Each structure stands twice: as C-alpha cells, then as structure tokens.
Amino acid sequence: MNVLVTGVAGFIGCETARQLLDAGHTVIGVDNLNDYYDVALKRARLARLEGRAGYSQELFCLSDAPRLQALFTTHKPDHVVHLAAQAGVRYSLTHPEAYITSNLVAFGNMLECCRHNPVAHLVYASSSSVYGSNGRQPFSVSHGVDHPVSLYAATKKANELMAHSYSHLYQLPTTGLRFFTVYGPWGRPDMAPMIFCRKILAGEPIEVFNHGQHRRDFTFIDDIVDGIMRVLGVPPRPNPDWDALAADPATSSAPYRVFNIGCEQPVHLLEFIGLLEQRLGREARKIMLPMQPGDVPDTYADVSALREATGYAPRTGIVAGVERFVDWYLDFYGAEASRS
C-alpha cells in the first residue's frame, strides 16, 4: 500500500507509520508541528522515521486545501490514515477555534481529496469522548452518541457524520476508530501519565480529578496501532441487512464503519497512579479535586465489533504497559528525570 499518514509527528501517527514501514508499505507523512505541546518531542518522533526507505514527509496544515491536493497529485496515496487533529478535551474549553480549523475544516479537505482521487480506504481517528453523557456501559458502537460534553467530542462526532455523507454520496469507504485513553512510550505530555510522571519525580503535587474515582479504559499504544493496521486492509462494504427503521449507527447501507479500540479493562485512576508510584519508586502527593467540565466519570470499550471484523484482541495489560511506559520515560528524559 501507498499510505498517507496525517499527524505523523503525533503519538499514534508516528508509531503507525513505523509499523507500516516495517510491513513493507510506502508512507507519506504529514504534520504541521504545532506548539500545542513540546515540539522537540514531535521532532524526536519524526527522527525515528526520517531516512527510512519508503518514507517521505511534508510539513503543512491540512486546512491548506490546495497544498493537500498537490500532495495527492504528487504522491498518489491509495490508503489514508487520518490521525491529525487538535487533541485535548480541556484545551477545547478555552481554544474552540483551534478545533474548528483542525478537526472540521481540515477533515473536510481530506474528504474532498479522497473523493477526487482513487483512495481505497480512509481510516480516521474518532474518540471515546463521543459517548459523552451516555450512561450505558461498556460503550458500544451501536449506542447513540448524541450528547457530547465538550467541543472536542462534538468535532469527532461531526467527523463521523461527515464521513458517512461521503460514503453514502460517493461510495468512499471510510472507517472511524474511537480510541480509548491511549498511553505508552512516546506519549503525549498533556495527558495524565506524562504529567503524573514528571510531577512525581519532581516532588510536585498532582491534581487528581473526581477524587480519583473515575475509571479509564487505558489502552497501550501497541494495541491501538494493531487495531489500525488490521482495519486498514479491510475496507468496509455496505451492510446488506441495514434497516433504516432500526438503524445501527455503527454500520450503513454505504461503505461505512465505526469501531471502538480499547482494552476492555477499565482501571480506577488511583490504581493507575499506584502503578506509576510503584515503578518510579516514589509516592505521589495528591490534591483531590472534583470532576472537571467536559470530563466523563468512566470509559469502558466494547470491542466485540472490531474483534468480529478483524480478529483484534488487546494484548498488553495495565501492569506491563505502565512498566514499559515508565522505563521509556526515564530513558528518554534521562538521568535528570530520575534524580528530580
């Protein structure tokens, strides 16, 4: 395959590109290297790809429609893994304009390019955040997701709707992947695992929202990328049994699918912090706080649809995953981090 990977300097994007290259595919990576978090970390990720056979890279914003079309004309990707987005629930409370541009305008440009070029499959990042106020657990792709509680979640829900319209109108095969709390080596510094590690090692207090009582379906990066790789080679087909009078939102009479990618093992936040403390050999100073706006109490993925379609099965448990993450953190940030 000749695969366009957007957000290639990101946590999931870089690892996806690496595994595609390992499997012998050609990869065109795109990123805009914005400063939402440490650009040096993004450049360090890119350094793991640059110079590899079959890899090429362009740096620009996907909101630039002519530039994106020029990329399609030059490189002619036949598969697209669209992971570029403005991430973060809390940031969306204060910077909504970034989500409109990066998550809506850019995604619309991507759909147009896929429509006008021979793309066999568009796989794009959605999020577990779309479940919002849904109280039924585990979260199933057959549940309704009509009550997002953050603009970030609303843009991801909008991406699913936009993709469906292109699948319906133009027969573009699209698959949306709802990721559940991704963690692991090379992770994002704006997410709890990295924040907690840094502050525990520095002896600084950590803020524990909802008094640590909420649960998250922490999913190790290797399992996330395994799901992406499995899905990419299986473009969706119209569901011949789809019934408009009893509509399943995860499938369609168009070539459209939505899947959860999670671990199916929700973990209490305090348990996760305890595993970090154990591996770091330090006790965290905790400031217990109420739940933040835009947050949800629990996430719990039902991955049965993905398992049935692709054979997906998460393999990395929380203990092994935290150990691998902490070991990478100490290695990457060096002796200074371990002596803090």
Present the secondary structure layout.
Elements: E1 2-6, H1 11-22, E2 26-31, H2 39-47, E3 55-59, H3 65-75, E4 79-82, H4 89-94, H5 96-116, E5 121-127, H6 151-170, E6 174-179, E7 182-183, H7 192-202, E8 206-209, E9 215-216, E10 219-220, H8 221-232, E11 256-261, E12 267-268, H9 269-280, E13 286-289, H10 304-310, H11 318-339
Parallel strand pairs: 1-2, 1-4, 2-3, 4-5, 5-6, 6-11, 7-10, 8-13
Antiparallel strand pairs: 9-12
Protein model, in words:
The structure is a single chain. This protein is α/β, with parallel strands linked by helices and 340 residues long. The protein contains eleven helices and 13 strands. The strands form four sheets. Strands 3-2-1-4-5-6-11 form a seven-stranded parallel sheet, with helices on both faces. α1 crosses α8 and α9 crosses α11. The protein is globular. The relative contact order is 0.14. The model has no long low-confidence stretch (mean pLDDT 94).
Poorly predicted regions are none
Mean pLDDT, to the nearest integer, reads 94
Distance between the termini: 45 Å
The largest sheet is: 7 strands, parallel
Compute the number of helices. Answer: 11
Could you tell me the radius of gyration in angstroms? 19 Å
In spatial order, strands of the major sheet run: 3-2-1-4-5-6-11
The run of helices and strands is: EHEHEHEHHEHEEHEEEHEEHEHH
Q: Helix share of residues?
A: 40-55%
Number of strands: 13
Derived from helix and strand composition plus strand pairing, the structural class reads alpha/beta
β-strand amount: 15-25%
The coarse overall form would be globular
